[in-house]
Amino acid sequence: MKKRFQVFVPRTEVYEKFIDKLNIRTEIIELNTEKSIGYAAAEDILSPENLPGFDKSTIDGYAVIAEDTFGVSDGNPAFLKIVGEVFMGEEYIGEIKSGECVKIPTGGMLPDGANACIMIENTKEFGKRVEIYKSVAPGENILKKDEDVKKDSIVVKKGEKINTGHIHNLMSLGITKIKVYKKPKVCIVPTGDEVVEPSENRIKTQIRDGNSYALMAWLKLQGIDVERYRLIKDDPEEFKEGVKWALENGDIVVISGGSSLGSKDYSLSTIEHFGEVLYNGVQVKPGKPVIFGKTDEKIILGLPGNPTSFVVSSYLFLFPTIRKISGFSNFIPKVDKYVRISTNVPTAQGRERFIFVKLERKNNEFLAHPILGESGIASPFRMADGIVRIPLGKEGLYKDEICEFYSFKNI
Ligand SMILES: Nc1nc2c(c(=O)[nH]1)N[C@H]1C(S)=C(S)[C@@H](COP(=O)(O)OP(=O)(O)OC[C@H]3O[C@@H](n4cnc5c(N)ncnc54)[C@H](O)[C@@H]3O)O[C@H]1N2
Ligand code: MOO
């Protein structure tokens, strides 16, 4: 008989010693920039030019030599001669000299000789002359030619998640294609003698498969391609068939259920059959019986079947693994905000604890209301905005204590 003693590892160790060390990466692909949102960049992208590329006015008014306006006021205006006009998208031919100004629209290119612009509201035009009632400093109301992006500066770092701001800059720079890491494909193998399809009638002792459908939806929200094997029985041969299919079809295999120590829990032996087990059990509640395995090119995760444990272990271990192999330099779950817990939450020591919470905005801060319940129920997931953390070694949270909140939305 197999030795039943297990060493559970802290979550941080899983990140540092396993996920961060993974040398598996998805393929690098070239995408149209407009389609690259949410992907990890596969290379540093440097700016080929300055943006905006020319000094431009930030107001509608007159381009002037700032020194010509020094000391002016309503009762003591400066008189400048209007020598021309700047048109959008065109370069002004000529150079303005002391005592002169040029009409300019917002966004127009600053003419040579000018070093500031004055708002139309602070002037009055009389034919070819304009009275200036307010002084401007050199550089005032001007956007410098490299103020937005400097030539050769990094616009996107390798491993950075492409966001809408990147797309704005990249498109403005004319970079219409970029190299990114492909998103991995996840294949789920749902297991359990008692588990039936949601469309089936069930007898009292059976349960319908909520886990794999919830995870598929959650992954699709992140743009991850996902496929599900049929439900399999607690039978070692069926486990092997399911995992073999998943390894052939996906980059990451998720086995739902069968990860604990029961006589019919076959995740561990199946993972050992196909590859190497790196960790078996983590110091996290819910979600202790998580098994991490790998082959040369693929990852196999055995996740606990209890719904709450399945959800938390997906969030804490599957999603970081997905991020790591698809090239993200930041893969560890990020604290979304710090929140105040609304009641005492005791916990047993020895496992880092995560509690489902609903947030309420109150007096300019967030109150987190715990949604407690056993790992075997799924409703906390439906009701929660995310989870709060009780660190390893802490005996619980006291009402009104500030704690870390991890959002289910920002993943
Ligand atoms: N002797 C021990 N027993 C258990 C331990 C332990 O350390 N020693 N750990 C407990 C913990 S903690 C958890 S979590 C569970 C995990 O068990 P398994 O991963 O083996 O999961 P199953 O036994 O297959 O299922 C547990 C529970 O979840 C239901 N389930 C399964 N699949 C689904 C699904 N697709 N959708 C919804 N619900 C599902 C299943 O019916 C069971 O009720 O082990 C403890 N035991
Ligand atoms: O780890 Mo289990 O997830 O406590 O129920």
Descriptors:
18% helix; elongated; binds molybdate ion; six-stranded mixed beta sheet; Molybdopterin biosynthesis moeA protein, domain 3; 411 residues; binds ligand LQZAQKY5; alpha/beta; 4 domains; molybdopterin molybdotransferase activity
Question: Topology, pairings included?
Answer:
Blueprint: H1 11-19, E1 28-32, E2 45-46, E3 56-57, E4 61-64, E5 78-85, E6 100-104, E7 116-119, E8 123-126, E9 129-132, E10 142-143, E11 154-156, H2 164-172, E12 177-181, E13 185-190, E14 195-196, E15 207-208, H3 211-221, E16 225-228, H4 236-249, E17 252-256, H5 267-274, E18 276-280, E19 284-285, E20 291-294, E21 299-303, H6 307-325, E22 337-341, E23 345-346, E24 352-362, E25 365-370, H7 379-383, E26 386-390, E27 396-397, E28 402-407
Parallel strand pairs: 5-6, 13-16, 13-17, 14-15, 17-21, 19-24, 22-25
Antiparallel strand pairs: 1-12, 2-11, 3-10, 4-6, 4-7, 5-9, 8-9, 18-20, 20-21, 22-28, 23-27, 24-25, 24-26, 26-28
Helix pairs in contact: 1-6, 4-5
The protein binds ligand LQZAQKY5 and molybdate ion.
Molybdate ion binds next to loops.
